User: Fold these one by one.
Assistant:
Number 1:
Amino acid sequence: MTGQLAAPERPLRIAIIGAGPAGLYAADSLLRRPDITLTIDVFNRFPTPLGLVRDGVAPDHQSIKAVARIFDKVLADPRVRFFGNVTYGVDLHHRELKRLYHQILYAVGAQADRRMSIPGEDLPNSFPAISFVGWYNGHPDYRELSADLSGERAVVVGNGNVAMDVTRILATPPDALATTDIADHALEALRQSRIREVVVLGRRGPAQASFTTPEIRELGRLEGVDVAVDPRDLELDPASQAELEEDRTAKANLKILRDYAGRTGQAAPRRIVLRFLASPVEILGEDGRIAALTVERNELVVDANGALRSKGTGQLETIQAGLVLRSIGYRTVPIEGVPFDHATSTINNVAGQVVHPNTGEVVRGEYVVGWAKRGPTGLIGNNKPDSAATVAAMLADLPVLQRLGDDGRDPSRVEALLRERGVDYVTYRDWQVLDRYELAAGRAQGRPRVKVTSVPEMMEIIRAGR
Ligand code: NAP
């Protein structure tokens, strides 16, 4: 240990686990510090970087994907190395990272779904939105999803932007999706789809919905799709009315919903029905597949924290449906060696600094960003300030980390370790090979890209292009 940490003679060595927006915004923020000499190694489970920009953002929202340019610049920076196809906890372990790096930043996102915990939830053709989104976006984990779109009605549970995404994809005429980077298998299945109606169930009222205004407006602009809302669902109780006065988004949403409720004489081939104050209490099967849902009417009650929450009224109805997608939020899963807060499903942290849950003691040199830090909310851009805040905490720690030894923190060690283990890691140049392949395939079809959706196939293309 000689010299000042993060000075040219003693570079700060950082590992980032996860190459999604949160991790790459953090890297960007670190790279912008001219006073810090550092190297950043970004590890990612898949050969493809970009996380939700590739796997989450809906294919008909290409403009949101423009942010990829910023991340591309980060990955191309000579101080950054990309290690794709490397699974944390399997190919590389916590104890090894502690030896190889001064700081570890977890940017692992929220990769699991939340459950409704109602009977019938696991019937075939009842899926979490995370799987359905992964399926149409060509995520390798979900390419085999056997969604049956032969029923006439689908029900989407939840009132967030993911619910809006899956509803739109189910209702959009496939020809409009054919010009996007939607996975080929999903486009083919959607071309065969017989779904004519998508019912969206919000458990609370329209004033509490968490979708944002452009997303709810967009539904009304889909060609060949009517949007229906029962005006009675938009009558607000006094508490909701008071909430609305304080919430510009909710106010703007309600204006649009009232417009939908006033639309008459609609007869488009497809229909979206937005329902509020309604929760499924059971999914009913017939011959091993979904036939219907029992839905309970809710009312709003004030909870102990003064928030309005939904409460069943006991009033039940049956909605026939062949597909159910629950879009009720994502969940971070615990990872090897890192304290986890099971109550919030996040990595246990205070302002991005990992801490032990019982003692509150700081885990020196370990940090978290993104959904694994704050829970699964926020747009991609919200990660920028959030990641910058964690980076500030990382840099504030440098005087404390100054005492760490540098033995073994040689950048070539991790490459050797992975090679020894037979891990065929994917570099930034390798990713460019695959990226160019997908872009070229897209150009040939007049699409932004055609995604390769299986890891073996990705690796074959990369190996051929090395
Ligand atoms: P979200 O915005 O938190 O919405 C989750 C929804 O699920 C809420 O309406 C919630 O209702 C409902 N819910 C939770 N538990 C439920 C249950 N047991 N039964 C019925 N409903 C239940 O989450 P998200 O839609 O997964 O989106 C995650 C984040 O990504 C959000 O910040 C979103 O804005 C962002 N995103 C943005 C875009 C975009 O910009 N276009 C696209 C996709 C996602 P309560 O409010 O009653 O809890």
Note: Residues 116, 157-163, 165, 203-204, 208, 210, 215, 279, 327-330, 376-379 surround NAP (CB under 6 Å).
Number 2:
Amino acid sequence: MKLREIYSTDKTVISFEVFPPKSEPEKLLKETAILANHNPAFISLTYGAGGNENKSFNLLKNIKDAGINVMPHFTCITSTKENIEKDIKKLSQLGVENILALRGDIPQDKSLMKHDFHYANELVSFIKEKTNLSSGVAGYPEGHIESPDLKTDIDNLKRKVDAGADAIFTQLFFENEFFFDYVNRVRDAGITIPVIAGIMPVISRKQVHKMTSMANISVPKKLKEALEKYQDNALLDFGIEFASEQCRGLIKENVKGLHFYTLNKSYSTDKILNNIKE
Ligand code: FAD
């Protein structure tokens, strides 16, 4: 099922993000089997710059064989047009229907850049021209880190939508107000496609520091205090409660979809989904 149809329901659509593990893919498949109990519309599989392509394709096939739809992420900044065409056609042949079309981060080693594609909107156009795949794109409720301001970033988001994107998946955020304000601004810019909320359960201090050092993501006082006060299981429990509260608030405002950044662990996401069912 393509993104437009997936998000045409009145119910909040659930989906999960996983990444290709360095080893033991069978462990990840066990986690996805637990997550599958929540009837996700799909699981998205991240794309690591310089990652092992064959490993990702195999994992994608394994998840699909378990009866779960997969939306692979795909970045373009370090690939040639020729390779991208080959890969997106291969994905189509595997029965993939949706793809998350991304530029990718500018690599530290600039020589890795191929300069065939400069921004994600060019990739969305190319995917549309060459395949039947439906494209999702990334959105940043607090602005992309390279963007001078949120308005410029949303103008650039519009380029991806005008190129044919069917849904926007947001960067994670810890304060719903950022998401609500973003959706209002996106709608004011004339963008009508679904905006899907990215939720990351807090698992550890290290994980929060890593994410917030790489992107514009505000940490509210309540979370800052909890990161000081709790660790291990106590922090895990806090993270589950915190994200459950976030999800309840989003559902109350009729969010179209919740996309969980699972970090390849089902434990917290499973508990959050059970909490919000109650
Ligand atoms: P773009 O939409 O191209 O935007 C990049 C920057 O350029 C922005 O500042 C934008 O405002 C500006 N811009 C865009 N278009 C133009 C234009 N035409 N002219 C001038 N400026 C423009 N990274 C990975 O490596 N692998 C993944 O699997 C992955 N998954 C992700 C999933 C989600 C949901 C999100 C939110 C991010 C993900 N990322 C992933 C990170 C992403 O690759 C980076 O944030 C990257 O820096 C930007 O990618 P983009 O597709 O948003 O780029």
Note: The two ends are 28 Å apart (CA to CA).
Number 3:
Amino acid sequence: MAVVETRALTKVFKEGEVGAVNDVNLQTREGEFLVFLGPSGSGKTTLLRMIAGLEQPTRGEILIGGSVVNHLTPRERRIAMVFQSYALYPHLSVYKNIAFPLKAQGVKKELHRQKVEWAAELLGIERLLDRKPRQLSGGERQRVALARAIVREPTVFLLDEPLSNLDAKLRASAREELELFHKRIGTTTIYVTHDQVEAMAMGDRVMVLHQGYVRQIGTPTEVYDHPSDTFVATFLGSPPMNLLENGEAIVGFRPEHLQPVELVPQAATTFRLRVKNKEYLGAEWILYGIVSGGKFDGRELISRLGSAASHQTDQTYDFGVGEQDLHFFDRQTEKRTGAKVLAWR
Ligand code: ATP
């Protein structure tokens, strides 16, 4: 039985307008870390808020632990939610912030200390219990918010971009901490982000949303290596997949698969590229090339090269892609097609 399930879940804010969330069918797996990934406005937060009970669905059902919960209040759903802004009570100590939900839940006072200490230890914030939120760093505040969420021993965690207020370095360490924390507690977790790197790094599975529709749900490897449509293909991966239209098909290949032709002995296709620009990123180069000659003359293609690459701007080089690295999509529907379009050039 799925911890969280949705059936044709839909939210239309204004009658006649397109839905913010459309017909979402979802089943979490026991203990998994599931990421909702999509650009701004794709419906991630609305979907999460409906699961939490903070937003009323227009249609469809939400089940938690196998029972329909549409009519239940957020508290009755036994869900813990951590938002972008941690919303700690500024005038209360860390201890009191963490204990707050226990009071609201009517847990006996004698048990408070035990539970708060358990949560604080799990998050490594035992020595901060007497401080006020303003005396904490961003990362520490996040841990307090998580501790406050886990004292309730929820059946599911909902996290809405909890790391977005942190700077890049802190974000990376907070991400790792959150992963370790999830491994320790093993509670099913849904995590919202628009950051594809974060999604790939953290998710057991990633659900890609676009305009309120689920485009794909799968492991990071599945969504990256077998994107179900051109949206997923270009949203995941930076720089994005190269796409070229060819008759009824769109052919795609990732920048790391467009390599100097001498490195691709059995290239299915080759391009002569004039280097327009290149960026050095330390461990790699990103090369922007313009196709010179042939059917795709003038189109820009992006290649990701090892740090030893020595291509010069305005020079021309031959690049190739292996057959196994080509993706084919239907030009009308933009969906992945099983059929390979042979002789596509
Ligand atoms: P972001 O990453 O920017 O937070 P999101 O993917 O979480 O975006 P939502 O906040 O779920 O997206 O919004 C989905 C759509 O619903 C957007 O078009 C938004 O404008 C609309 N929307 C959200 N809340 C409301 C509301 N209360 N009233 C009307 N429209 C809303």
Note: The longest strand covers residues 267-280.
